[in-house]
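Input/output pair, single chain:
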Amino acid sequence: PGGPASKLVKGGFTPRRLLSAYTRDRLFRGWATDPALVTILRVLIGAERLMLSQNHHNCIMTKYPGFSSLTSWHQDVRYWRFDRPELVSVWLALDHEHTENGGLSLIPGSHLYDLGRGRLDASLFLRTDIAENRQIIDSAVPAELERGDVLLFHCKTYHAAGRNETDRVKKSPVFTYRAYDNEPIPETRSATYPDIELAG
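Output:
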């Protein structure tokens, strides 16, 4: 919500993300497979063999002034299809990220929630008209990030982002990882391209 209504209006061709970042440049590949990052991911995911998803995130997220949209409360995994909903996303801030430029807010501990289907709308966003949802949304924490900060979060963590109300474009590389044995379900979007096994 809040972005241009169609491609035919002013700002309609504003890019939202640069897809397939891993294959576009060695700089992106180097960051996504950095040994220090992989070490942390092994601990968080609890597996030695890790895969980088080429089908989810694997992009540079952008928020342009004037034409960015609001992203409502959601879990990334809502449209992903894997054996287990156990993936971790890594978000790199290329500049200061805060509420005013569309920075993320997250609900701590929400990856453990088991909310009934009725608490979500047709697109699987949290319904804001339900008192129980308002209570957990009120516990959200903004991710105030400085340049070079890295945010890691579970695929079931509820998060949201506002519009970019500043005069500068916000850009953030985002990659998602899984355990080797947490395979994508065949013939789903999660299995479109082969994932990348991390070395070491």
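Residues 35-45 form the longest helix (11 residues). The CA atoms of residues 105 and 142 lie 4 Å apart.
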